[in-house]
From TrEMBL:
Keywords on record: Cytoplasm, Disulfide bond, Oxidoreductase, Peroxidase, Redox-active center
Organism whose genome encodes this protein: Acidiluteibacter ferrifornacis
One CC-aspect GO term: cytosol
Domain Thioredoxin stretches: 3-177
Keyword Protein transport: no
Family: Belongs to the peroxiredoxin family. AhpC/Prx1 subfamily.
Protein name as it appears in the record: Thioredoxin peroxidase
One GO biological process term: hydrogen peroxide catabolic process
Function: Thiol-specific peroxidase that catalyzes the reduction of hydrogen peroxide and organic hydroperoxides to water and alcohols, respectively. Plays a role in cell protection against oxidative stress by detoxifying peroxides.
Taxonomic path: Bacteria, Pseudomonadati, Bacteroidota, Flavobacteriia, Flavobacteriales
Protein localization: Cytoplasm
InterPro entries documented for this protein: AhpC/TSA, Peroxiredoxin, Peroxiredoxin_AhpC-typ, Peroxiredoxin_C, Thioredoxin-like_sf, Thioredoxin_domain
PANTHER family, alphabetized: THIOREDOXIN PEROXIDASE (PTHR10681), THIOREDOXIN-DEPENDENT PEROXIDE REDUCTASE, MITOCHONDRIAL (PTHR10681:SF128)
Gene Ontology MF annotations: thioredoxin peroxidase activity
Length: 210
């Protein structure tokens, strides 16, 4: 698994569904450069079971991300028409109707590959025929990207393991606190708590008071 933290996020240009209904071509994270932080998360499949719980959980907290000037963007290897179809299905029917943040269609699987979250692998048999090992879908990867397009945080879950959206918000708060204050965030830090100077004296002072 590639570690992208500290590196430029791979470029994205693909079809996406925005505002819960509009299909656009050449959707890119470049639109947020210099303007917003981005939480980009991958999920395995449309019309499944754990995935809608995550998509709705991010929607429920969307205002909290927006209040932090942070865009939420989802991505899976389904087509834009599959995304659009799922968006027409009511929440109580297992659908994602009501989701308003962008959902990218990674139909050629290059985005998941570039972010190194594609679950399956390509190979060739003795006859030179291409083979797929495992499902060619995305793991539950999440990437926090700063305004300069640099990945600052990543986490990847296996397919059955849903994520904690509050933790994603905490990481946004941590990054923004460091950017604004220049102080680092110790273990279990959350918004409103004090940070720490990255010096021996700073560490000693923090540990003594906590």
């Amino acid at each position: 698994m590639a570690v992208l933290v500290g590196k430029k996020a791979p470029h994205i240009s693909a079809s996406a569904v925005i505002n819960g209904e509009e299909i656009v071509e050449n959707f890119s994270l470049d639109q947020y450069l210099g303007k917003k932080h981005v939480v980009l998360f991958f999920y395995p499949k449309d019309f499944t079971f754990v995935c809608p719980t995550e998509l709705h959980a991010f929607q429920a907290k969307l205002k909290e991300f927006e209040d932090r000037n942070t865009a939420v963007v989802a991505c899976s290897t389904d087509t834009e028409m599959s995304h659009w179809g799922w968006l027409q299905v009511a929440k109580d029917k297992g659908g994602i109707q009501g989701i308003t943040y962008p959902i990218i269609a990674d139909t050629n699987k290059t985005i998941a590959t570039n972010f190194d979250v594609l679950a399956g692998e390509w190979d060739y048999n003795e006859e030179g025929q291409m083979m797929a090992h495992g499902e060619m879908v995305a793991y539950r990867g999440l990437f926090l990207i700063d305004k300069e397009g640099i990945v600052k945080h990543q986490i990847v879950n296996d397919l059955p393991l849903g994520r904690n959206v509050d933790e994603a918000i905490r990481m946004v708060d941590s990054l923004q606190f460091f950017e604004e204050k220049g102080e680092v965030c110790p273990a279990n830090w959350s918004k409103g708590k004090e940070g720490m100077n990255a010096t021996h004296d700073g560490v000693a002072s923090y540990l003594a008071s906590n």
